[in-house]
Amino acid sequence: MTAVRITLQVLLVITSLILTLFILLHKGRGGGLSDMFGGGMSANLGSSGVAERNLNRFTVAVVVVWSTVVVLLGILARFDTTT
Fold first, then answer.
1. Which of 35, 41, 49, 59 could make a disulfide contact with 22, Cβ separation 3.0–4.6 Å?
2. How many other β-carbons are positioned within 10 Å of the β-carbon of residue 62?
3. Mind listing the pLDDT tens digit for each residue in 42-75?
4. Which of 15, 6, 20 is nearest to 61 (CA)?
5. Rounded distance, CA 50 to CA 69, Å?
């Protein structure tokens, strides 16, 4: 059980670093706080290139893996009887 937990923790660290890198690679589009809540989004809709779309896909894939690892670690922590 500890080998699985260590593997998941290492995977969590790796995916966290990759996710941080991918988020920082995204192109900034907003002009302020109003854009964060949906204003000005229509002007940028459909203007992303192939690289930006691929970066979005990779980011979503890493988020799915990261979320799955977090849930699995939570399940292991909940049902672990050795601690």
1. 59
2. 20
3. 555 555 688 889 999 999 999 999 999 999 999 9
4. 15
5. 29
Global pTM?
0.73
The string of DSSP letters for 25-69 reads HSPP---SHHHHTTTTHHHHTT---HHHHHHHHHHHHHHHHHHHH
Which secondary-structure segment (H or E) carries 18?
Answer: helix 2-25
**Which distant-in-sequence residues (6+ apart) come within 8 Å of 19 by Cβ?**
59, 62, 63, 66
What is the rounded distance in angstroms from the CA atom of residue 10 to the CA atom of residue 16? 10
Where do we find the tokens 């937990």? 5
